[in-house]
Structure to design on (262 residues):
DNA sequence: ATGATATTGAAAATGGTTTTCATAACCATA
DNA sequence: TATGGTTATGAAAACCATTTTCAATATCAT
């Protein structure tokens, strides 16, 4: 039975607040702020390690920001990683009509001759609120 | 009229040898090897700068490797960045049936309400030769 | 040639991420 | 509640791709 490191819950709670992708450093800063008064926050290394673990366990989803940072957010079951990210405010929405996209991707996978297919798909633009 | 830095040609020549994506460091190593005997190779910084310039000018295409490195290759006109990369050997092929994918993406773009849409799509798997 | 502008190399700085290592927390069992 | 083995943690250092700095060159128009 897997022991659950005590900080995992904290981190999941932070990521659970909304569905925006956040960098490890952002998560860490939130934890630091949040804990002023009540005990020490986990260190940056611990947050990195926890995020790795959570990704490995399938609880988190990752994408890379345009400048190469790794961003994390809570997975939604059957989430096939179709995201639409606003380049200005960073908000991420689900891609509408994702079924159509999934179908196309599956067909492509089948025709490719490749095995163990996985993909990431990142759509970015400027959201209505920002434009 | 734009002057062409003398190393751009060299670098394009290296990338022109095949359609695999390469990191800046890989390109640099090739240049270093290649130039044993005939004069000094360009420095790493110069290669970085040249690659930037070539991307800016639309001659190169980039993707990020799974571990966050930026990889470059020659653009093909009307290339809409649909790549299928082998996780083992790094070979990159074009995605078959890309038209279908394009169509789906265009519809999604229309339905999203986002402006200035751009996307990257990266499909990875294990190619027939490697499996 | 002359001077204005752009390119280059070498080394240092950046900055996200990972590793190290010593310490502390945890858990099962006796 | 000792005991010992396993895992988590923090702090600092190491990593490593990429950028920046800055002084020295090359390049171009004239």
């Amino acid at each position: 039975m897997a022991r659950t490191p005590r900080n995992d819950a904290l981190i999941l709670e932070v990521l659970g607040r909304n569905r925006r992708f956040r960098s490890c450093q952002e998560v860490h800063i939130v934890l630091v702020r949040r804990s002023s008064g009540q005990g020490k926050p986990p260190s940056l290394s611990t947050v990195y390690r926890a995020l790795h673990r959570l990704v490995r366990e399938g609880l988190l989803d990752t994408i890379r920001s345009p400048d190469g940072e790794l961003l994390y957010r809570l997975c939604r079951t059957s989430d096939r990683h179709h995201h639409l990210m606003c380049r200005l405010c960073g908000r991420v929405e689900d891609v509408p009509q994702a079924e159509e996209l999934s179908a196309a991707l599956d067909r492509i996978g089948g025709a490719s001759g490749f095995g163990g297919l996985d993909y990431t798909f990142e759509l970015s633009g400027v959201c209505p609120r920002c434009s």
The mean pLDDT of chain B is 80.
